[in-house]
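Milestone 3.1: sequence recovery, worked example.
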């Protein structure tokens, strides 16, 4: 009988045939037995679904494939996969991210030490399209953030938690999952709501994952959309919890400035 808690790895992907096998194998081959990898393909038009099904045949008891027939977008696809996750803990990754050996076991150990711990993260490497290391993700771990209680720090300093580094306690996630009012940056709101006022989040030591930087970069239009989602996140959070207003106002002003800057640059 397994004594380890079940961990679900939530993977979303769209047209990532170059990277999806490496991503999934890095999760499937973790040294942790009680693990399921739930991957949602958002109606890819390349070979991504075929690669997923080949791996599902190789790992029938470990890989759960969800092949979408129509595109839902990042947030919708994330919720589709989240609904299929059964684990006590959920780790998050994109179809071009990579988990390093020992990640799952180390994060479970940290979360199991204290039931008030709801989110565990870690530092990640930045890599290029060929897997070459660029360096560490800058500003991913503020000096004070080794272990903290409450979401005020995440509101004040922004979404500094690397997405592919996060493992969350499922019972602490909001019942609606990712907020579908935010098509691109729904993860920040999810972490804010998961931590709440009393939840503890923190970082394990070392580098336990890789975040891939795409050569084409991020378009100005996408930057604007991300900033707008961030503004909406702060506004809705302030409306839902008036106690956070004094923290949210400076963050709102900062993002309004960024919005004006990018709009000016895009003229």
């Amino acid at each position: 009988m397994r004594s380890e808690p079940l961990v679900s790895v939530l993977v979303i992907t769209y047209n990532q045939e170059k990277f999806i096998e490496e991503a999934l194998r890095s999760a499937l081959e973790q040294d942790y037995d009680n693990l399921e990898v739930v991957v949602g393909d958002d109606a890819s038009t390349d070979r991504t679904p075929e690669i997923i099904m080949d791996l599902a045949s190789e790992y029938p008891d470990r890989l759960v494939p969800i092949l979408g027939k129509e595109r839902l977008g990042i947030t919708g696809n994330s919720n589709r996969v989240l609904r299929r996750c059964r684990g006590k803990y959920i780790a998050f990754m994109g179809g071009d991210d990579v988990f390093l050996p020992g990640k799952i076991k180390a994060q479970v150990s940290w979360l199991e030490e204290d039931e008030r711990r709801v989110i565990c993260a870690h530092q990640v490497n930045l890599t290029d399209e060929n897997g070459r290391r660029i360096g560490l993700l800058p500003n991913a771990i503020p000096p004070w953030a080794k272990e903290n209680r409450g979401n005020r720090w995440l509101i004040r300093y922004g979404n500094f938690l690397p997405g592919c580094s996060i493992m969350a306690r499922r019972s602490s996630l909001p019942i609606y999952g990712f907020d579908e009012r935010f098509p691109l940056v729904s993860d920040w709101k999810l972490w804010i709501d998961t931590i709440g006022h009393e939840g503890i989040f923190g970082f394990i030591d070392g580098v336990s994952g890789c975040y891939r930087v795409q050569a084409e970069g991020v378009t100005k239009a996408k930057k604007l959309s991300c900033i707008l989602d961030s503004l909406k996140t702060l506004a809705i959070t302030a409306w839902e919890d008036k106690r956070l207003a004094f923290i949210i106002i400076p963050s709102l002003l900062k993002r309004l400035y960024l919005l004006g800057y990018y709009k000016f640059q895009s003229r």
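The first strand starts at residue 7 and ends at 13. Residues 7-212 form a domain with the Spore Coat Polysaccharide Biosynthesis Protein SpsA; Chain A fold (CATH 3.90.550.10).
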